[in-house]
Design a protein that fits this description.
This protein has 354 residues and is of the alpha+beta class. It has 11 helices and 10 strands. The strands form 3 sheets. It has a 6-stranded antiparallel beta sheet with strand order 5-6-9-8-7-10, sandwiched between helices. It has a two-stranded antiparallel ribbon with strand order 1-4. β2 and β3 form a beta hairpin. α3 packs antiparallel against α4 and α9 runs antiparallel to α10. The longest helix has 36 residues.
């Protein structure tokens, strides 16, 4: 049947809790407007009926998430309902590239002379293989999660902190319910490649941040190989609320798949808004997923609350977190950053030779 606009983050349980505008029902979200070889980045209104949506299910099959939309996450099966929903969203996002890529190649073909067509075809072919490899991996994991869903029931209560590491599960899943609202909804995937002398290995981390009225459900999904290699890193983050806040902010500057309470962004100074937009433009360039957090606060009020209640917070950490609020980070000129990041804009469609 015809696909509908399905929410990947619950409209009723999460997105509506961020609504400050009554019947207007707008959040703010980053918007990338690409026109090769340039693009612009904005943060603008996004209506709640459209936030986090994708055309991945028909109306009948979207009903498998009705329980999530009515009562949120209550059971382990609810966690995996959300995992399946999130993986489906990201498979759809990857497949959109397949629709765009031929148009992009046609544009490049018209700009290149005959001598460079061989190089272009090679780069195009490499990009196709890379994207197909990601889609195949995600889709396989998605179907394996669906098989697990089909045999699970809702009798096992979801503890406030739990993870799923059994060999039965095709991905590593960690769930935590935070005792405070993080005023942003996120369904973001960050992909990266580890290279050694013999091969390149693709990994990803998906973060779901789903605010409620007074709490936040957090889900981390990653491939099992990554978890095996970096389990200590993931455990350290999830055990510390400020580390969690840093992880959320880091995902926000490395992706455009988030929807924020308008007053949070509007209360930032114009200088900080500009830095955030430029960092988004550059895909968070310079901020590695495994190395520290974002160096500027987005959630000032929440950060101060967490600093205040964490009695055992080391002094150097407290000062560093306050610095994110009180000082502006230093960046290279935006022109230089644009020049460096330019090749990355076309990587989903064309990989230049090394």
């Amino acid at each position: 049947m015809e696909a509908i606009k399905s929410h990947s983050i619950s409209e009723k349980q999460s997105l509506e809790t961020l609504n400050e505008q009554g019947d207007i029902r707008n959040l703010l979200a980053p918007k990338s407007r690409k026109a090769y070889p340039n693009k612009s980045m904005l943060i603008e209104d996004c209506g709640i009926p459209h936030a986090s949506t994708f055309k991945g299910f028909c109306k009948l099959h979207d009903e498998m998430f009705v329980r999530l939309d009515k009562s949120g996450i209550k059971s382990n099966k609810d966690i995996f309902r959300q995992v399946f929903r999130s993986l489906s969203y990201h498979v759809f996002r990857e497949k959109v590239i397949e629709v765009i890529r031929p148009k992009f190649k046609e544009k490049l073909d018209n700009e290149k002379d005959e001598e460079t067509h061989v190089e272009l075809d090679l780069g195009y072919s490499k990009a196709v293989k890379q994207t197909n490899r990601r889609i195949e991996k995600l889709d396989k994991q998605r179907f394996e999660v669906k098989k697990i869903l089909d045999i699970m029931d809702d009798k096992r209560y979801a503890y406030i902190l739990t993870d799923f590491t059994h060999s039965l599960y095709p991905v590593y899943v960690m769930y935590k319910r935070l005792g405070f609202q993080v005023p942003v909804a996120i369904n973001a995937k960050v992909s990266f490649t580890f290279r050694d002398d013999s091969e390149s290995v693709d990994h990803y981390i998906i973060l779901n941040c789903m605010p409620g009225e007074y709490t936040t459900d957090l889900i981390i999904i990653t491939d099992k190989e990554f978890h095996t290699q970096h389990s200590d890193y993931l455990a350290a983050i999830i055990d510390d609320d400020i580390y969690i806040l840093n992880l959320i902010e880091r995902f926000m500057v490395m992706s455009d798949e988030w929807w924020i309470k308008p007053s949070i962004y509007n209360n930032l100074s114009e200088e900080r808004k500009q830095i955030l937009i430029e960092d988004l433009y550059c895909y968070g360039e310079g901020f590695h997923m495994l190395d520290g957090g974002y160096d500027m606060s987005i959630f000032d009020e929440l950060r101060l609350q967490l600093i205040d209640v964490m009695d055992d917070l080391a002094e150097h950490r407290r000062l560093y977190e306050l610095k994110k609020i009180n000082e502006l980070p230093v960046r290279e000129s935006f022109e230089k950053r644009q020049e460096k990041i330019q090749p990355k804009f076309i990587q989903p469609y064309f990989i230049p030779p090394a």
